[in-house]
Write a structure and sequence with these properties.
The chain has 289 residues and is an alpha/beta fold. It is built from 13 helices and 9 strands. It has a single domain, classed as Alpha-Beta Barrel (TIM Barrel). Helix content is 46%, strand content 13%.
């Protein structure tokens, strides 16, 4: 196995990294699907994002992904592209996002995952960026970083107690799923379909088979994202995955809101509806599943 695919030495777990695993352990014990809420930090401002994230956590979000705005978000659809553009125009930087994490930690213990492209991290420097753990972050997902190129990044972040979360896709071969699983901690993010983020009317019919294939290579929780937007999606996913990642639908609510307070209320309403679907009916998973 090449150096780029080697699994770094195990590092001691910290209070930061345990928040993610503890939350998924609780969800598994109750047979409940988790809700991972994606929020673009800085849209329309970092102060507004603080209100929105706290509202989402209070409404029942199990994990919050804080999107770091980037000028070329190639994996994202139009809703999150516009959110990223608004955040950049409001002056949001990676340093500002880390300060936001510090402020959030004063008021919530919800697991926080930084969702970024690699360029902002590279510009800041991996060692300095890893101070995100001190700010209170729990994990990092870098959209455009592959396992082959992420050895140094993984070693540094995991040594600070940060989970390194990687993406798997429908196009991932079995060998690729094994590689991704070997370097992922916290949870594995499974992209439900090819293409970019965005809301969809229905889930891909081949998704259950994809999740089953992915589970052959990891014991970690599997969170499914891209195209998840409706309570009915959550109901279907409840018997398949461990968590649903919702982003574009939440950021569309932010975009339509007339004020930061209105955005926080709209996001909370949607998260609450999604969480209610996760707690009821066929969305509940048996502990033996």
């Amino acid at each position: 196995m090449s150096e780029g695919l080697a699994t770094p030495a195990t590092t001691p777990a910290t209070k930061s990294s345990r928040r993610i695993s503890a939350r998924f352990t609780e969800l598994s014990a109750s047979g409940e699907l988790g809700i991972v809420a994606y929020i673009t930090a800085g849209d329309p401002s970092l102060e507004a994002s603080e209100k929105i994230v706290l509202a989402a956590a209070e409404a029942g979000a199990d994990v919050i992904e804080l999107g770091v705005p980037f000028s070329d978000p190639v994996a994202d659809g139009p809703v999150i592209q516009r959110a990223s553009d608004r955040a950049l125009r409001s002056g949001t930087t990676l340093a500002g996002v880390l300060e936001l994490v510090t402020r959030l930690r004063r008021n919530t213990q919800v697991p926080l995952v930084l969702f970024s492209y690699f360029n902002p991290i590279l510009q800041m420097g991996i060692e300095k960026f890893a101070d995100a753990a001190k700010a209170g972050a729990d994990g990092v997902l870098v959209t455009d970083l592959t396992p082959e190129e992420g050895a140094e990044y993984r070693v540094v972040l995991q040594s600070r107690g940060l989970d390194t979360i990687f993406l798997a896709a429908p196009t991932s071969t079995d060998a690729r799923l094994a590689q991704i699983s070997a370097v992922t901690t916290g949870f594995l993010y499974l992209v439900s379909r090819t293409g970019v983020t965005g809301t969809r009317d229905a889930l891909p019919p081949e998704l259950p088979a994809l999740v089953r294939r992915t589970r052959k290579f990891t014991a970690l929780p599997v969170a499914v994202g891209f195209g998840i937007s409706l309570p009915t999606h959550v109901t279907v996913l409840g018997g398949i995955a461990d968590a649903a990642v919702v982003g574009s639908a939440l950021m569309a609510a932010v975009e339509k809101a007339a004020s930061p307070e209105g955005a926080a209320m709209a996001v909370a309403d949607l998260v609450r509806a999604l969480k209610n679907a996760a707690r009821a009916g066929v969305s509940r998973r048996s502990n033996e599943a």
